[in-house]
Amino acid sequence: MKTKAVRLYGVNDLRLEEFELPEIKEDEILAHVISDSICMSSHKAAEQGASHKRVPDDVAENPVIIGHEFCGEIVKVGAKWQGQYKEGEKFAIQPAMNYKGSLAAPGYSYQYIGGDATYIIIPHEVMETGCLLNYNGDAFFYGSVAEPMSCIVGGYHANYHTKPGCYVHDMGIVEGGNMAILAGAGPMGLGAIDYAIHCDRKPSLVVVTDLDTARLTRAAEILSPEEAAKNGVKLVYVNTSEYENPVEYLYSLTDGKGYNDVFVYAPVKPVVEMGDKLLARDGCLNFFAGPIRTDFSAEFNFYNVHYSSTHICGTSGGNTDDMIESLRMMETGTINPAAMITHIGGLNVVPKTTIDLPNIKGGKKLIYTNKEMPLVAIADFEELGKTDKFYYDLAQIVKKSNGLWCLEAEKYVLENAKDI
Predict the structure, then answer these.
(1) pLDDT at residue 198 in the model
(2) Do the beta carbons of residue 340 and residue 187 sit within 8 Å?
(3) Which residues pair with 419 in a beta bridge?
């Protein structure tokens, strides 16, 4: 069977190619990819080429398919897995397999599996590590954002707290506690807010900060204080640039108690240091945002570490359980990570988009891998729709879903966009 895929050959050498897939072995699965979300990690892999820890040294001779946030349908199941997986089932993949201690992962390391392809061969190690995940939702794009959503979920589970005189870490956020999400009005921050107000271990107060009034206004439209209140959570959006002493104001929202859990969603020194100042006794600061600089640092009050038991943690990615939790919450409509998605495109734009990703504003760039489409911001549909019926129709569809990508929009693209 032929497939079309974007393959990495070396530093910023990404090529959209058509080639033949071999017949699957008895311990492999043939699958049809429908959607993939482009991750900054793919940009880093392209930027570093063979020097990247997950990219093989011989990538120039044996190119790998990129993309690791993908969702699709199983086409053919090898004999070994026929009792566990069935043709026609939807799937998502947890790329961080840790198979026998290896860093190899779909989207970085394999010739025949990656998200930016039409058809792929799933190798045995994906199934053996439990990383081929069944997905029962209707929309494929949710399966593509399950991996980034799992990173958010993992952050909530990684926070920890202790009781006086006890050295056992109580994992997770404080139920009924105070939470701050700093620099939290971006796409990933919206996912964090969504999870906070809909998970099974909720805080009582969530304060979200940002410096951009428009982003905060849009966040409040997508995840409103009224929706949070229905779930027993008080949600407050704050533009910290409007206050002479933002720390003092944010602290006052807790009646002087401080925040049990603080999430930092931007790798900015003043934001980290603000988070430290907001911590309550036994407060946990989660440094969620991954910095580019290897020497990134910020001050932390060690007097409070000693006398108030404040502490810090950080996570990079989520585990398989986090991803399963994300998938199940999306299947039931408990959370809606569509707010993460800001651009839509086809397989043809993957090479350029991946290389230019840091310079393209917005959130997730969602790719429909069997389609040929330019990369277009959802916010631009209406303007393009003045001269293009395709985008006019999409603009009308997303308008009905509060400006967010949705199942109806996905179906329209799959039925009407040009095949690649």
Answers:
(1) 96
(2) yes
(3) 371
Structure tokens at 196: 């906070």
SS3 37: strand
Compute the mean pLDDT over every residue in the chain, rounded to the nearest whole number.
96
> What is the reported pLDDT for 318?
87
- Per-residue buried b or exposed e for 375-396, using 16+ beta carbons within 10 Å of the residue's own CB: bbbbeebbebbeeeebbeebbe
DSSP single-letter state for residue 22: P
**What are 227-254's pLDDT values in tens digits?**
999 999 999 999 999 999 999 999 999 9
pLDDT at 235: 98
* 8-state DSSP, 359: G
Encoding tokens for residue 192? 């964090």
pLDDT classification of 315: cutoffs 50, 70, 90: confident
* pLDDT tens column, 255-296: 999 999 999 999 999 999 999 999 999 999 999 988 878 899
How far apart CA 357 and CA 246 sit, in angstroms, is 32
CB 167 within 8 A of CB 139: no
Instruction: Return the biggest CA–CA distance within the chain.
Output: 68
CA–CA gap between residue 341 and residue 404 (Å, rounded): 8
Residue count of the chain, please give it: 420
Q: Which residues contact 80 (CB under 8 A, 6 or more apart)?
A: 26, 27, 124
User: Are 42 and 91 in contact, with CB atoms under 8 Å apart?
Assistant: no
User: Residues of 26-62 as b/e, b for ≥16 C-beta within 10 angstroms?
Assistant: eebbbbbbbbbbbbebbbbbbeebeebebbbeebeee
Cβ neighbour number for residue 303 with a 10 Å cutoff: 8
Backbone angles phi, psi at 32, to 5 degrees: -110, 115
Is residue 31 a contact partner of residue 73, using CB atoms and an 8 Å limit?
A: yes
- For 331, the token pair is 């299947």
| Residues 327-353, mean pLDDT to the nearest whole number | 96
Question: Counting beta carbons within 10 angstroms of the beta carbon of residue 20, is it exposed (0 to 12), middle (13 to 18) or buried (19 or more)?
Answer: exposed
